[in-house]
Design goal:
single chain, 330 residues, alpha+beta, Jelly Rolls, 4-stranded antiparallel beta sheet, 20 strands, 24% strand, globular
Length: 330
């Protein structure tokens, strides 16, 4: 199945002529989505985000990437050393330091490849610092309001060299749905990432957030949209330098191709939420989504189950519902 999907989504392998509503050809370019951190107008940036469901801020996280990249390199080496003690889980394999591995491409030196490194706010000071950057929070506040909560504990997505996994076009809402608007995500390049390097830049489909949730299917990289309907050439490639940041709505369609370069391609992700919003579904497969919906129906009329993240701006108003006191782990 993997070989078939890779063939289907090769750049240019499918025509976009049947997708005029969200086609990037001749309509939206990467430059239409971007602002620069050194001349940032947070309101202007938020307006771009609301219009397209995505926003590119050039140079926003330049001062954090060197430290994060050093942590990434150390963690990747450590996790590979721990592979002999890996644990099988539905999503792949987990090493004892929290790194997720999935099946590697044919011809790889290992059967497993890294997908998500076990690096988070509890293990990387620079990642935590990036998550509370003032310019970043200024933009988030313009989008969701003065009270901002961190959703999750940060995430490092990692593509190994010479064929590191593709993440097929998808919406984050396939993995987590919310009662209200859901989180604002930021994906941040740790290294220069572009089509010339062929190391897996992010593709986004501007305006796709207005379509709401779309049904997903199971793939080797977990939930994704049907690649016959949502090929990569339906999106806009966002090429960038280390420290560039892409903001995206929970319903915005996005994905990235294989890393065919000789170096790893890591990115780090931070997510922000209104404190009065809460997660309703969490899943990594079609079956898990179905089961989560059943459990949600069983809880109809009951108080929501919410894991509270750290407040990074403003405050959390008491609303009479005491939810979980634990920090969200995703």
């Amino acid at each position: 199945m993997l070989r078939r999907l890779v063939k289907l989504i090769a750049p240019g392998s499918l025509s976009s002529k049947n997708f005029p509503r969200f086609s990037s050809s001749g309509t939206v370019l990467a430059k239409d989505l971007e602002v620069h951190a050194d001349s940032l107008d947070a309101k202007e940036a938020a307006d771009i985000y609301r219009k397209y469901g995505c926003l590119v801020v050039r140079g926003l996280n330049v001062k954090y990437v060197d430290d994060i990249r050093r942590t990434v390199e150390l963690q990747a080496e450590q996790s590979i050393q721990l592979l002999p003690e890996k644990k099988k889980i539905p999503e792949g394999w987990l090493t004892s330091d929290g790194t997720l591995f999935i099946p590697a491409p044919e011809g790889s030196s290992r059967k497993e490849q890294i997908m998500v490194l076990g690096v988070d706010y509890f293990t990387c000071a620079a990642l935590l610092a990036a998550s509370i950057d003032e310019k970043c929070l200024d933009i988030v506040e313009q989008i969701i309001g003065p009270n901002v909560e961190l959703f999750g504990k940060g995430q490092i997505l990692y593509k190994e060299p010479s064929g590191g996994h593709a993440k097929f076009m998808h919406q984050d809402s396939a993995y987590f749905e919310f009662a209200k608007d859901g989180p604002v995500g930021t994906l941040n390049y740790c290294i220069d990432t572009n089509l010339s390097l062929n190391n897996g830049p992010l593709f986004v489909v501007p305006g796709s957030h207005r379509q709401g949730y779309i049904d997903h299917i199971d793939t080797h990289s977990h939930l994704a949209l049907d690649p016959e309907i949502w090929p990569f050439n339906r999106g806009v490639p966002i090429e960038g330098k280390a420290g560039d940041t892409i903001f995206f709505h929970v319903h915005t369609v996005h994905g990235s191709q294989h890393n065919c370069s000789a170096s790893p391609r890591p990115v780090f992700i931070n997510r922000y939420l209104r404190p009065d919003d809460y997660q309703t579904i969490q899943a990594t497969s079609v079956k898990m989504r179905s089961e989560a919906k059943e459990k949600l129906a069983e809880r109809a009329g009951k108080p929501p189950l919410k894991e509270r993240g750290y407040m990074v701006r403003g405050w959390r108003q008491y609303d009479g519902l005491e939810w979980s006191l634990s920090t969200a782990h995703h």
